[in-house]
Amino acid sequence: MELTITGGEHKGRKLHIPARAPDCRPTLNKVREAVFNILGQDLQSYLFVDSFAGSGVMGIEALSRGAEKGLFFEKDSTLINILHRNLRFLSDTRYELHEGDFFQELSPSDLMPGIIYLDPPQANKIESLTLDFLSSRITSPSLLILECHLRRTFTIPDCYTVHKKREYGNTKVYFLEL
Known about the structure:
Layout: E1 2-4, E2 14-16, H1 29-39, E3 47-50, H2 57-64, E4 69-74, H3 77-87, E5 95-99, H4 102-105, E6 114-118, H5 127-135, E7 142-149, E8 161-168, E9 171-177
Parallel strand pairs: 3-4, 3-6, 4-5, 6-7
Antiparallel strand pairs: 1-2, 7-9, 8-9
């Protein structure tokens, strides 16, 4: 299977995604386009953290659209191999791939002002846990984007402000700030 980058310098490039990986649900084109339309096209001064990267499509899309740097976190070895393959076509070193659990690999220096994209594996139901974890670590202004299934229910901690909530088919996307 393949996905296509929808904007920026790598628009039209094909990315590989695993044929069978239950925890990998690559963000659909229409959702990616909508998220980046809300963010705007100028990401040059932003760090983009792809927290549960999977195929890396969101972080690669951000780099294609000019993000200053991309940080990718993935612990599944099959997905890490696919992520390496997808990152090879980038002609620069504006990214870091952390091969391990997001909760263990994330350091405070990884959270300079930027955009943190959260799309945790649905089977784990860890949206609230992830938001709690980040609320104790974020020290500079950051935008958090949380993608989940439309029917998923969870509590957003009071320390977050919900700026936008959008629905696209079976997908719900929250734009949050601490």
